[in-house]
Amino acid sequence: MTKNLRVKTSKFIDETYKISFKFNGKTYYGYKGDTLASALLANDIHLVGRSFKYHRPRGIMTAGSEEPNAIVQLHNNTSRTEPNVRATEIEIYEGLEASSQNCWPSVNFDIGGINNFLSPVLPAGFYYKTFMWPASFWEKYEYFIRKSAGLGKSPIEPDPDIYEHKYIHCDVLIIGAGIAGILAAKTAAKNGYKTLLVDEKPYLGGSTIYQNSEHFKISNQISSSWLEKEINEIKKIKNLEIKIRTSVAAYHGYNFLLARENLTDHIPLEQRSNKIRHRLLKIRAKKVITATGSLERPLIFDNNDRPGILLCSAIEKYANFYGVACGEKNVLFTNNDSAYETAISLYQKGINVEAIIDSREETDSKLIKETEKNSIKVYKGYTVVDTYGYKRINKVSIMQLSKDGQKAIGSKISISCDCLGISGGWTPAVHLFTQSGGKLKFKDEDQVFIPNIYPSDQISIGSCNGEFTLDEIFSTVPKTLKEFLNLKKTDYEDLEIKSSFNKSKRNIWLLPSEKIIGKTKPFVDYQNDATAKDIKLALREGFRSIEHVKRYTTTGMGTDQGKLGNMHALGIISETTGSKMGELGTTTFRPPYTPLTFGTIVGRNVGEYFDVFRKTPIHEWHIENKAEFENVGQWKRPWYYPKNGENMHDAVQRESKAARDSAGILDASTLGKIDIQGTDASEFLNRVYTNSWSKLAIGKCRYGLMLNEDGMVYDDGVTTRLDENHYIMTTTTGGAATVLGKLEDYLQTEWPELDVYLTSVTDHYATVSVCGPNSKKIVSQVIPDLDFSDENFPHMTFRNAKISNIKCRVMRISFTGEHSYEINIQANYGKSVWEKCMEVGKEFNITPYGTETMHLLRAEKGFIIVGQDTDATMTPVDLQMDWIVSKKKYDFIGKRSLYRSDTIREDRKQLVGLLTENPNEVLEEGAQIVADIKKTPIEMLGHVTSSYYSPNLKKSIALGVVKSGKNMIGQKLVIPMKNKQINVTVADPVFLDKENKRLNA
Amino acid sequence: MFVINCPYCGEREQSEFKAGGEAHIIRPKQPTELSDDQWAEYLFMRKNIKGIQFERWVHTHGCRKWFNVVRDTSNDVIKAVYKMGEKPPTK
Ligand SMILES: [Zn+2]
Question: What contacts A823, CB < 8 A, 6 or more positions away?
Fold first, then answer.
């Protein structure tokens, strides 16, 4: 049943190396060097997928990365499965398994195909117009849309492959190794530039390398032979690095580019383990030479999308490079000379060309003459008006074009065929150039956009710059390179060039047929099924901007970003609205040029390397003692220490009780520590904290609140005066870096006259905090030389001490409301001090507790946690912390904002305590607080910020922010939950030991 | 991603730096004397220019120094870099 369409040996294909692969479950054979597309075509398979909207059968259209139709799923239902892979790019390997996408149940019989017959009711904007209304129906529509749309399936198992990122710095980067790129690479590298040449293909030489015609010669050699010698030469140059299978995805400002180097996608699966699959190259180039070539344009006519319709250049490549005939009865349709090149290639390989339909009336070139000499019928001044055949083209009908090209006239002629080549001329691949910020200009004579204004040190050469023919390349590129690279000469001047290509072209963006447009399907964007009709409809409905038309019709919004059809969309808009192409502008070209896998983007940052984390010097002990951890900023902090299968609640209740009844121990090493020194240190603290610091005696500690300039609470912590000009500030764990940054900012930019130096010492010290009524007994045994009497060492003071011979700082400060001590010691000794406390504390049932218990204990005391009870909209007054705002100080950060009209409002949200009617009911943090449940719309007064069951008070306690809450003590409010309402009473936020007796207990 | 020429360290990747908004906004010396509107002008009002903009940057993952940058926001071209306290270039 399957035919073999391999025609003649090609030197790019190794026919001694047979490879078997599966497509839609069936086994086929190809050769080393084949892509999936060329191997399928060799087996006479054109139908590979269904279109997105109408589920029309679609075949291979191109031979490159611009392919819109032939996208497949690889290795379905495995961990390596990948959707949206272009069959034209994937090189076959033993065991390759590919399947069609976007069809159900099979590519040959697809239920969605019914959309094709429903297409009159699926016009542009159909989804917007229909499914968005009524809004409540969206959920129902969505299910069906998703099921019938489906561009492939993502893998559900972890990715078994390894990916990597690499930085590259070079003098000159050359993108594209076609003939222009090769000239550039040799010229740059030979003149001493450290050069990198990349190409997305697995070979060098672009389309010239398989160009075997006598019509194109360089120095009297066929162009491919000449180029081959050049390539062999550049491979020997030392300062030239060449990377194939490397596709530049993004070109950012300052010549920063991202490229994906594909290392294993072309080898059998079993050989891939422990190899890097893709490498994301982050390239910083001093100079960039873009030589990305050009893409052949299709032609837009009725039913121009059937399997068996390919670009002429693709048919030529399949014949010359892969030795594959795309059909046995080929018809070519063109508006320029390219199709004749194709015809000659096919003729040379013994492949039959039935006819050439040329929209130009009068044309004359050596290529046409030779074609006609070979008795190929040429229809001049004709257009294809329709095509036939559902799953494979079998016939075209053609008509004459009117003089103005707007009508099809005369009688219809039918030509049977099994393959139709189309060529609408060439579009320079300016995608990367515009990504870099470059501005284009429209060149009327060729109807192309080419680079105009370069935003960085870069240049475009070859056909991506509109230099399409061999003689244009050799007359322009060497000159451009000389100027760009500051050279006196290149190797490429005064070469004898023979090029028979005639550039004449008859550009008609939308070709006419005898039918009215409403009855036709001239596809502009194949992947998204957008037709010329849709574009015209969008214009009729009032859309004008190309960006709007694009979104309304989805033109250019597929995975191929409309590489083939975008120019036609512009052309049709320009013709319909009468505006000039150059004035319309283009849509934005966005990275990536071709899709990247997520693996490539994340590289090695997966699993435990997804984000770095920090651990305290006591971390190992916490692990040995089965702590559960919580992420706080980048830190891993013990959350709670479950014992004998306890759940979190039970563990926290036990820990909280132990800390108040006897002794608890907390690893507080994560708190930010900033060492502050200088003769103006006190003045500096005065300016950054709300309270006064000038009179703090040496050896004393003070709690401070830091505001933003807008008056909102930013951070808090205890700062200790170690000496006359020396303080140590503690910050919240999460705020350490930003607080230091903010303080540096003020010091360097606002107050450079202050003599103050800031140093982060967070990592230098371990902090062991022991609290509870027995804390003194424990700590005094750990540090026997220190006098722990209340007279010598009262609350809010610090003492220098020694444990064995090691210096440490002991602060008597408390975040739990209990009598407690913090031992700060050089990080290396943290774990041994902790263990010593545990050992000594055994007889007092010393209990390690985590962040959850710490939060509970401080909530009992009504102490805030910045970031939990505050959210950058809370002033100290809102927090009922007026006591810490100095009235005497002339200025401090945020002071002026505390009496702006907005901050002095009485009805701001204020921090209060909340007690539930049922003492066992624990509120949900984040729950909304209201007064009147019946009022509509219901008025939100605030929300719960912290909530716990307190084992020490034997009831539920919560903190929350409530509008005018300060004046509502004793008032009843309601917290509406999904299935119930919870009654609460507003209370003072301090629930336990208001007189602070426990601090000295 | 652009390259910034830190006046203390030299050329480094943008990812080493953090932007700090408009430059040359001086914190009022006597905030208490200002009306709400005057204070709001200092606190909230910032230019958002398409074109040449004077801005503050800090070399967060380097020398931690603040400095000024003159940047064309339409194409990210950096026209000048100068230290805090130095006069902005006039051309
Ligand atoms: Zn620096």
Answer: A767, A768, A769, A770, A779, A782, A783, A803, A808, A809, A810, A833, A837
DSSP string computed for A265-288: TTS-GGG-TTSEEEEEEEEEEEEE
d(CA A704, CA A720): 10
| CA–CA dist A66, A86 (Å, integer) | 9
Nearest to B43 among A253, A437, A710 (CB): A710
Question: Residues in chain A with pLDDT < 50?
Answer: 1
A898-933 in b/e form (b: 16+ CB < 10 A) is bebeebeeeebbbbbbbbbeeeebbbeeebbbbbee
Same domain, A643 and A680: no
Ligand 1 centroid–CA B59 distance in Å is 5
Q: Name the pLDDT band for B90 (thresholds 50, 70, 90).
A: confident
A974 burial (CB, 10 Å; 0-12 / 13-18 / 19+) is middle
In angstroms, the CA A245 to CA A261 distance is 6
- The verdict on A520 and A437 lying in the same domain is no
Domain around B21: 3-27+35-83
**Model's pTM, two decimal places?**
0.88
Matching residue, tokens 């050439």: A356
| A746 and A812 assigned to the same domain | yes
- DSSP 8-class letter at A111: G
Instruction: Provide the mean pLDDT of chain B.
Output: 95
Q: Which of A398, A422, A446 is the last residue of a domain?
A: A422
- Residues A909, A962 within the same domain: yes
Which residues, 6 or more positions from A451, have their beta carbon under 8 angstroms from its beta carbon? A290, A428, A430, A433, A438, A440, A441, A460, A464, A465
Beta carbons within 8 Å of A966's beta carbon, 6+ residues apart: A880, A910, A912
| Closest Cα in chain A to B30 | A891
Distance of CA A778 to CAs A663, A784, A787, A795, Å? 9, 10, 13, 17
Residues 6+ away with beta carbon under 8 Å from B45: none
Tell me, what's the pLDDT at A143?
56
Of B31, B76, B85, the CB nearest to A891: B31
Backbone angles phi, psi at A414, to 5 degrees: -105, 140
* Beta-carbon contacts below 8 Å between A and B: 55
Q: What is the DSSP string of A454-495?
A: -SSSEEE-GGGGT--SHHHHHHHHHHHHHHHHT-S--TTTT-
Residue B90 in domain? no
Range of the domain at A35: 14-117
pLDDT at A1: 45
Please check whether residue B43 lies inside any domain of the structure. Answer: yes
Q: Are A672 and A731 in contact (CB under 8 A)?
A: yes
Q: Which residues of A touch B50 (CB under 8 A)?
A: none
Number of domain units in chain A: 7
pLDDT score at A746: 97
A322 with A280, same domain: the answer is no
What pLDDT sits at residue A54? Answer: 82
